[in-house]
Amino acid sequence: MTAKNVERDVAISELANHLERDLMPCPAGRTALLTWIEKKLAHIALNPVPTAADATWLIESAYIQWAAAQPKG
Questions:
Q1: Where on the phi/psi map is residue 62: left (φ > 0), alpha (ψ -120 to 50), or beta?
Q2: How far is residue 48's CA from residue 41's CA, in Å, rounded to a whole number?
Q3: Which residue ranges make up each domain of the chain?
């Protein structure tokens, strides 16, 4: 694993921690959440937003909707 991959994994893990701590626990489990975050970040990379704050708002809003729709895992 390269240093860049490690850094990316740490950032994704920290984002997952933030979402679960500050918004709501993920009922689908940690693995599903990490996969969802990776897909969401890939989507944002293809469709850039103006600022990091906009990206954060998009991820948080989408997470609340996604998590609420997940069965408990």
A1: alpha
A2: 10
A3: 3-69
Instruction: Say which amino acid occupies 19.
Output: L
Reading the block at residue 63, the tokens are 């997470």
CA 68/CA 20 separation, integer angstroms: 12
pTM equals: 0.87
**What tens digit of pLDDT does each residue of 11-69 get?**
999 999 999 999 999 999 999 999 999 999 999 989 888 898 999 999 999 999 999 99
Any alpha helices (H) in 19-51, and if so which ranges? 30-46
Judge whether 30 and 71 are in contact, CB under 8 Å: no
With 0-12 CB in 10 A as exposed, 13-18 as middle and 19+ as buried, what is 59? buried
